[in-house]
Each structure stands twice: as C-alpha cells, then as structure tokens.
Write a structure and sequence with these properties.
five-stranded antiparallel beta sheet; 9 helices; globular
Length: 409
C-alpha cells in the first residue's frame, strides 16, 4: 500500500507538470507579451522544475524501497557512514576557500597533553566540550579525520539540531568508557581543531582499538550516580540553530562529509517525503504499522556471541515485535529500516550506557546488541555526522545459516 501512495503522489505531480508545460507552450505560441505574461511564464517554469524534482524523488524512493524489500546492500547509507569521500570544493581545486581546518580524509596528529591542557578551562573543557580522560592515550598519535562534526542532535531537550563549531571525529576513535564506570555506548570521540595538527598525507596512521537511540524508562534500572562526558555536555558545547538555516545542509557537502551524488539522492528523498507529509501520504522508508495492543509475536530467545553472523529480520517481522514502535522499551528508528534483510556480525552486547540528558548510568534489564559497522547514518537528521552505533534487540535478529561446507565465523 505504501507504494500506491508513492505512485499517487508521482501521478499527481506529473499531471501538474504537464499542465504547466501546456501553459508554457500556449504562451510561446500565442507570443503573449506584457508583465502578466512574463510572470505567468516564470511561474510555470518554476512549477515544472519543482515538479520534475518531486517526480525524481518519488522514483528514487521506489527504487530504494525495492532494494530494502529484497535485502540488497544500501549504498546510500554506506556512503553516509563509510570512508570519507572527496569534498566538492577539493575536487574543484577550491579547498582553500574552507581554510586550513582538518577535513575528512586528512591525516592529523593529536597534540601533546601539555599543549591541549593549555586550551582548556578550569572544567577541562574548550568551548564547553570536555577533554575526557579516555582521550589522553591518543595524544601524540596520528589518525585520519572521519567527519567534520558541524552539528549534533539535542538528546537532552529534544529541540532538534544544534550547531557545533570547530570539531571533527577521527576514524575508529570511540570512547571505551574505562573512566566512566565501563559505559558501553562507544560514542565517537569529538576533537576540537585546536587539539589537532595536520600532517602530510604520507604519514603513518595509528590503528585504534577502541544514532539516535531512544530508550523508554522500562528498559533499564534506575541508578542515582551522575557522570560527565562529552555526550552529557553537548548542550553546553553547542549553539541553537534554526531549522530554516540552509547552511546546515550545505556544510556536509562542501566539507566532504558526503559525496555529491549521495547528497542529491538524499535531498530528493527529503523533498518527496515533504510532499508526502503535506499530502498525508506515506514516508520513505516505510515501516509496517506496529501493534498498538499488548499482543506481540513471541520470539524464542537466542544465545548470541561476539563475531557471530546474524541476519536482520524483515520489516514485517520486526513490526510484529513492536508496541508503540518499541520492543521491550527500545525504540526502532526509521534509520534502521535500511538494514532489514541484511547480514551483520555481532560486535558485543550492551548492558549499560550513560544517558546523554541526565548523566545517569542506565542498566539495561535485557541486553541489546551492537553489530559491526552498522551505525546511524544521519540521513533523516540533515546529515547529522555523529554516526553512533544503533542498538538491536534479539527479536530483530536471527542467526545466519551457513551453507554446508562453508566455515562459519
């Protein structure tokens, strides 16, 4: 039924497009002059342009939806969270317009602890962002820049996106939580530009061994002690940003966080979703409506282990485990739909994490699981570059069957 909704919007938009083209032809054939004719012609051209973009967005959504149904690899999501692409300005030889700040793909060296401490205030923060004890071990090491982190999602007050200035993430450098009572969230560590120095690209790069996740109160046991880390201080380290500020959509493209073709596909998808919202249609990606009562499909318990191969269940199967879009209190986010039907490899269980809003350690009543290389993509948060791990319930997974004679991992 959701595809019928997509096709209906495409058909309506196509009819409007044809009408505007007919009006343009009539104006040209009749050679009507004067200001009203000029205004009418300009308006029809704008309608044709916008309608064509909406139709293109609808066809893209149909193509992407079909790939999800078939469990095919999501190249769009992989590009958003994978290795950094070449930035548009760098490809055009205009990188100097962006200044000397580190960009995705650059090799940087973390400054010495003494140098970094000179940038910190009495609370060990720079512009409100803490320099955590877990970051000390990386001083003097070199890494590749993963993303420029120009904004974050406000998990404390749910106000949307907030502006973060002069910060990047480094490839594979995540917080191990060793100084925060073993928090298992493994968030990307954020680095201020002042804590890094660029080095020639031929330099050796160290190997580091180290999403929006909404969790209901009945998922964890209450713990009273509070902790301070980068994630709990993002509100203090960021600035408010209007949803109508289009610069937040341009920065990811210009800085190199996303490639041009992925950027265009995501924007066309967003445009089509906006039209669907105005029309009362179905968003992309579509998720089967979850159950609203207490009767959910009972899923047998599994015994998962690190490095075990699993398959992510289909959209229809996962929907049958949800109550108000949650399974045992854990929210199933729309950004996770793209992985339905795809294989994954278990990384580790997650039993406790620090809540970004309260600083409290949350102890899960039932463990969730992290899958290797499966993170949030930020597509539906205006290219949010945080790219944190998504958490999976056992009900959303099943062991991957191996063919006879094929060794399993």
């Amino acid at each position: 039924m959701h595809r019928k909704s997509y096709w209906k919007t495409i058909a309506l938009t196509l009819a409007i497009n044809i009408f505007a083209l007919v009006v343009l032809v009539i104006l040209n054939v009749a050679q009507v002059s004067g200001l009203p004719a000029v205004v009418a012609s300009f308006t029809m051209k704008i309608i044709v342009l916008v309608a064509s973009l909406i139709i293109a967005g609808g066809l893209i959504c149909l193509w992407r939806d079909r790939r999800i149904e078939l469990g095919l690899y999501d190249h769009i999501g992989a590009s958003l969270k994978g290795n950094p692409p070449f930035s548009l300005l760098s490809a055009l030889g205009l990188r100097s317009l962006l200044g000397q700040a580190p960009r995705p793909g650059d090799i940087v060296e973390v400054r010495s602890l003494e140098e970094i401490q000179q940038t910190l205030d009495a609370d060990s923060t720079l512009d409100g962002l803490p320099f955590m004890p877990e970051m000390h071990e990386y001083c003097g090491s070199t890494f590749r820049v993963h993303r420029r982190v120009d904004k974050i999602y406000d998990m404390r007050n749910k106000t949307g996106m907030r502006r973060l200035c002069d910060a990047v993430s480094l490839t594979a450098v995540r917080c191990n939580g060793v100084h925060h009572d073993g928090c298992q969230a493994e968030c990307y560590v954020l680095w201020k530009d002042a804590w890094l120095r660029r080095v020639p690209s031929s330099g050796a790069v160290d190997t580091c061994l180290t999403s929006e996740v909404e969790i209901a109160a009945d998922t964890y046991d209450n713990v009273t002690e509070s902790y301070i880390c980068q994630m709990t201080r993002l509100w203090e380290a960021t600035l408010p940003m209007s949803r109508f500020d289009i610069r937040q959509d341009l920065r990811p493209l210009l800085s190199g966080n996303v490639s041009l073709w992925v950027y265009l596909i995501v924007l066309l998808t967003r445009l089509f979703d906006t039209v669907q919202c105005l029309r009362g249609g179905v968003y992309f990606p579509h998720m089967t409506l979850p159950i609203k009562d207490n009767s959910v499909t009972q899923v047998p318990k599994m015994s998962l282990a690190a490095d075990q191969r699993v398959m992510i269940q289909s959209r229809a199967h996962i929907a049958q485990t949800l109550i108000n879009s949650r399974t045992k209190g854990l929210w199933y986010d729309r950004d996770m739909i793209r992985f339905c039907g795809n294989p994954g490899v278990v990384y580790k269980p997650v039993d406790k994490i620090i809540h970004e809003g309260t600083g409290k350690m949350l102890q899960f009543k039932a463990p969730c699981w992290i899958l290797r290389d499966i993170t949030a993509t930020g597509e539906f948060q205006r290219f949010n570059p945080q790219l944190e791990y998504t958490y999976w319930k056992e009900a959303w997974l099943h062991p991957q069957e191996t063919k006879k004679g094929t060794p399993s991992i």
